[in-house]
């Protein structure tokens, strides 16, 4: 029925409430009219694109390709609870992951280097503890979250806004291949569907609907990630946000979520504390660097470097040292893992 123009999820639900699937194409126009369907829908139901259906059936014959209806046991029960659940999910990969506990991770498509690093580290920790990382295959935080899960041989699900024979953005073709091999690609859109702007809000409701909690890593005030967070709240999911500097525009969305009641998290343990039911034993605690092992000059400069981007000019002004001396110390601090570089020649503590 998804191959019939003008027939979407709501119409399919109405049809299946009164008819068995095979009856939909066999029942009379008068009967459909009596059930309240418009002439346009009735006419469309009488002219299905059977050639496209044949292509779908050929795709389903390939290994690890699935089409799950809302009545199937493999359909995730938590997704049935949302408003307007997709009547069919197309899946490429490990379909059993849909029934596993999932944490969704979303954020900016143009994150800072710090945001990317944070997303990877959280995804690694959460995936290592047994949670499936679910995101949207977008640029930025989405991709970092998927990659973090893959880094530790964890499970990850990408919910996409195209048919599963398409990859958007195209630069993520290799990432999509790895996710299909070690996790699952999921879409409510049939094969051949290209990316459209209105597909992504629809995708977002599935991302939040699949999860037990949603973590926003880095988001501007008008970020689409905040829409996903709002959907998660409406679906009674836990919402987590990582705070950031008041001077960082990419942190304002997360800070706003926290003011509105999202749980502030600084470590993966904060997420588990709220969920309260998943095993944390496999999370390896990060080793703490011993600052006393540094020379006094290195320690003094490190104290001047903030946890948000700090320019070399600022360090020169605050320390009174030369650019050459500061650059030498910065190189040592970066090589030893105390700081990392940011855009524009800045540095921040990690």
Helix content: 40-55%
SS class: alpha/beta
Could you name the ranges where pLDDT drops below 50 across 5 or more consecutive residues? Answer: 279-288
Determine the mean pLDDT.
86
- What is the total tally of β strands? 11
Cα-atom radius of gyration: 24 Å
Shape from CA axes?
elongated
Strand percentage, roughly?
Answer: 5-15%
Query: Biggest sheet: strands, sense, closure?
Result: 9 strands, mixed
In the sheet with the most strands, the strands line up as 1-2-6-5-4-3-7-8-9
Q: Span between N and C termini?
A: 52 Å
Instruction: Return the string of H and E elements.
Output: HHHHHEHEEHEHEHEHEHEHEHHHHEE
Q: Counting H and I runs of at least 4 residues, what is the number of helices?
A: 16
């Amino acid at each position: 029925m998804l191959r019939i123009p003008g027939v979407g999820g709501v119409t399919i639900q109405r049809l299946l409430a009164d008819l068995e699937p095979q009856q939909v194409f066999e029942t009379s126009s008068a009967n459909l009219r009596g059930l309240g369907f418009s002439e346009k829908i009735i006419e469309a139901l009488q002219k299905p694109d059977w050639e496209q259906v044949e292509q779908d059936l050929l795709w389903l014959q390939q290994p690890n390709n699935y089409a799950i209806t809302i009545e199937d046991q493999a359909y995730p029960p938590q997704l049935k609870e949302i408003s307007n659940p997709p009547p069919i999910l197309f899946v490429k990969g490990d379909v059993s992951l849909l029934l596993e506990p999932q944490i969704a991770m979303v954020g900016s498509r143009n994150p800072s280097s710090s945001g990317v690093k944070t997303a990877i580290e959280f995804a690694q920790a959460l995936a290592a503890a047994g949670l499936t990382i679910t995101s949207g295959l977008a640029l930025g935080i989405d991709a970092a979250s998927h990659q973090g899960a893959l880094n530790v041989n964890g499970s990850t699900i990408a919910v996409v806004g195209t048919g599963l024979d398409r990859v958007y953005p195209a630069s993520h073709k290799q990432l999509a291949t790895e996710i299909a091999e070690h996790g699952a690609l999921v879409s409510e859109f049939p094969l051949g569907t290209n990316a459209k702007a209105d597909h992504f809000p629809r995708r977002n409701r599935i991302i939040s609907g699949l999860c037990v909690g949603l973590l926003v890593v880095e988001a501007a005030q008008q970020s689409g990630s905040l829409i996903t967070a709002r959907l998660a709240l409406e679906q009674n999911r836990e919402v987590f946000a990582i705070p950031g500097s008041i001077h960082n525009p990419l942190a304002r969305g997360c800070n706003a979520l926290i003011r509105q009641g999202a749980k502030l998290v600084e470590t993966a343990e904060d997420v588990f504390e709220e969920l309260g039911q998943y095993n944390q034993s496999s999370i390896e605690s990060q080793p703490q660097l011993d600052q006393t092992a540094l020379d006094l000059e290195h320690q003094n400069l490190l104290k001047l470097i903030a946890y948000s981007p700090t320019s070399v000019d600022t360090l020169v002004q605050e320390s009174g040292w030369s650019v050459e001396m500061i650059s030498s110390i910065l190189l040592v601090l970066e090589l030893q893992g105390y700081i990392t570089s940011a855009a524009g020649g800045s540095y921040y503590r990690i």
